[in-house]
Amino acid sequence: MLATLLASGTLALAAQSPVLVEAEAFDDLGGWVLDQQFMDLMGSPYLLAHGIGVPVADATTTVAFPAPGTYRVWVRTRDWVAPWNAPGAPGRFQVLVDGTPLETTFGTEGAEWHWQDGGEVEVGATARIALHDLTGFEGRCDAIVFSPDLAWTVPNEREALAAFRREALGLPDEPRDAGEFDLVVVGGGMAGTSAAVTAARLGLKVALVQDRPVLGGNSSSEVRVWPEGHVNQEPYPRVGDVVMELVPERRPDSRNAQGAHVFDDDRKLRVARAEPNIELFLEERVNAAHAEDGRIRWVTSQDVRTAGRTRYRGRWFLDSTGDASVGFLVGADFGVTETGHMGASNLWNVQCLCKDEDPLSMEMQRATEEAKFPRCPWAVDLTDKPFPGRTSGSTEPVADGGKPISLGNWFWENGFDRDPIWDMERIRDQNFRAMYGAWDAIKNVEGRYPAHKLNWVAYIAGKRESRRLFGDVILTAEDLRDGTVFEDGAFPCTWGIDTHFPDPRYSEGHDGDEFIADYTRGAGYEYKGPYWAPYRCLYSRNVANLFMAGRDISVTHEALGAVRVMKTTCAMGEIVGMAASLCKRFDCDPRAVYAEHLDELKALMTRGVGRN
Ligand SMILES: Cc1cc2nc3c(=O)[nH]c(=O)nc-3n(C[C@H](O)[C@H](O)[C@H](O)COP(=O)(O)OP(=O)(O)OC[C@H]3O[C@@H](n4cnc5c(N)ncnc54)[C@H](O)[C@@H]3O)c2cc1C
């Protein structure tokens, strides 16, 4: 089919072909945010009206049509609270064509992603399209199709939809070739970034591929978890030098969910960009890979704005995606704790429209302005249920100087018994429902905090646990407790065996959707640290050229509780970077670094790769 490039990057096909407009490719996203987290589940990045209860500004674009006339409009969306049969369809939005709203209100039906029928519209040669949010409560739009065939329906089945997108967007069959790298790092969290920096400093040509505009993963300003753990420990005090270049300066407010500045995204970008051997690919999500004879040959990413595809060939690959996405794509052995695993959190904070500028400090100040918040009948109903931060049923405001309340911190967590990959959009959305339910209860049931408003809410979920790739050693909690000594001890663990489970004090009435966590601690969950965990946890046992670093390494569910804090995951990255340099020097694979070059690895660990 003949394709013609039209205005604004919209691509229309021959006159009778439908016109596909991807929401994420709009010229101006307005107040909508780009959400790429669930591409693997629902097929595309999408735009989210994340206004925390205040409608966001319109996203706008100009679409050129192959011929003026009548088109049927289809909008890919869903009612995001439908999985709970909750009333009210909070994610409502309109589509404006040349300033006039279509009659249909979107986001009002269907638990699943689908094409909602928007009726017929007359257009000229071009039209100005806007997504107009009606609520500020997490409306979502994947794409819009204008079909000149009024009887045609857009495919929604996974493969057919992907084929339709490729054709309608005129994407080439072959991805762009980014070239050949020594090390391809997929996932730019703390682990991936430190691996890239370390390997680059040791002379490797590195691709660092990250699906967000910033680096740091959970410790970026998008998720706001403060990196814990200790590095620069004996007998390898130089392991951690790169870590400490990446970790922001500690400040009095260096805690979870504080202001964006605390997490200093620029610092991580600056350190990575200072390395001439790193080619940085931001807003690129790896979603395909190719392996032959037990080795990865290449991975392919999708640009989250344009859908363009890029291939990265490499000798060695690092899976630092958290979810072991690369390993999964190439058939690496992995384990996942099906139920009773750690969940995900969407941190949040509140702010007073008064003198109190510390967002998590809820000490009551005299109100200077009223911050209204609408009722949320579609949220978790916490009218008469306990949650952290609630005064025991009191409707009296806490007096000035009262204790900070516990809103938005790490224990607002759910998904313990849900699939941490395939149920992930639901898990993130249940975090939203819990937060909105709590705030509704505080503001509208208890009548407390009249001058406070929801200030910031992460729409990128902070994940703790999903797939763990198996290496030659699978580290266990017994190893930590017993102090098992591995000759290849390579990164220091200093955090307790801290796994999470639903907090029984807040679980009643929320079966399967518990949203407050407690954690394991005390006897049986402690060990003598620093504990040096083995290098053999950092490469795949069955894919010869695959490293891993971060929460997807070779550990059991319990041991993950100790290794997952971010100075530790970042130190894993350093070790992978060092090991990759030995792979290049000795023309070998990760396993041989343990079997044949452990002394050289220890020499690098002794020397360190820091700049300071
Ligand atoms: C609420 C919460 C509180 C926590 N508290 C602490 C704490 O106080 N201190 C602490 O140190 N740790 C804490 N942790 C644990 C810690 O944040 C995680 O264990 C850690 O982030 C895991 O690191 P990672 O690099 O594996 O994953 P991430 O930090 O998630 O980084 C992975 C990165 O890869 C990107 N990515 C994923 N898939 C792809 C793909 N296919 N293509 C390209 N890029 C991709 C992601 O966008 C992300 O940026 C907490 C976790 C949570 C959720």
Describe this structure as you would to a colleague.
This protein has 612 residues and is of the alpha+beta class. The protein folds into 3 domains: 4-154, Galactose-binding domain-like (Jelly Rolls, Sandwich), CATH 2.60.120.260; 178-337 and 466-494 and 529-607, FAD/NAD(P)-binding domain (3-Layer(bba) Sandwich), CATH 3.50.50; 343-463 and 500-522, no CATH class. Helices cover 20% and strands 25% of the residues. The protein contains 11 helices and 31 strands. Strands 14, 15, 16, 17, 18, 19 and 31 form a 7-stranded mixed sheet that branches. It has a 6-stranded antiparallel sheet with strand order 1-2-3-13-7-10. β2 (11-12) and β3 (19-22) form a beta hairpin. α3 (190-201) runs parallel beside α10 (566-586). The longest helix has 22 residues, at 424-445. Mean pLDDT is 93; it is low at 1-13, 357-366 and 393-404. The chain binds flavin-adenine dinucleotide. The site of flavin-adenine dinucleotide has 37 residues, from α3, β15, β17, β25 and α10. Flavin-adenine dinucleotide binds at residues 186-191, 209-212, 217-218, 225-229, 256, 285-286, 320-323, 325, 345, 347, 410, 462-464, 550-551, 564-566, 569.
Briefly say what this structure is.
The protein is of the alpha+beta class and 612 residues long. It folds into three domains: 4-154, Galactose-binding domain-like (Jelly Rolls, Sandwich); 178-337 and 466-494 and 529-607, FAD/NAD(P)-binding domain (3-Layer(bba) Sandwich); 343-463 and 500-522, no CATH class. The chain has eleven helices and 31 strands.
